[in-house]
Amino acid sequence: MKALIVEKYGEAILKDVPLRELGPEEVKVKVAFCGIGGCDPFIIDGSIALPLPWHMGYQASGVIEEVGKGVTARGLKVGDRCAWTNSATAGHVTNACTAARPSARTAPFPTVTWTR
Questions:
Q1: Ordered structural domains, the chain, with CATH
Q2: Residue-wise pLDDT tens digits, 17-27
C-alpha cells in the first residue's frame, strides 16, 4: 500500500509499505479520501516532534474490504462505506491505499443525496 511518511523532519515521502496482519478488532479499508490537516506541516518540519517514522493523515473514508473475527462495533461489514478519525491512535497508517483500522473508531457512512 502507499503511505505518506515522515522518516526525517523536513520531508514527507509517499512510499510503498506492507499492510500488517489485520487484528481481531480491526477492519481493512480501501481508502478513498484522506486529509492532511493543519498540524501536519508542523509535524513534517519538526515543530511538533513525534516519534519517527510518522504516518501522515488521521481522518479518512473508504470502503470496508475485510473485518476482523472479533468486530462487533456498529455492525460494520464488508462493502460498507465508512469514515474514521485517528485522534486516539495517531501514527497508524491512514494516508494509504488500504488501511487496518480499529473498528471502535470506524463508523459506517450513510448514502447522502443532495437536492436543490
A1: 2-108 (3.90.180.10)
A2: 888 788 888 88
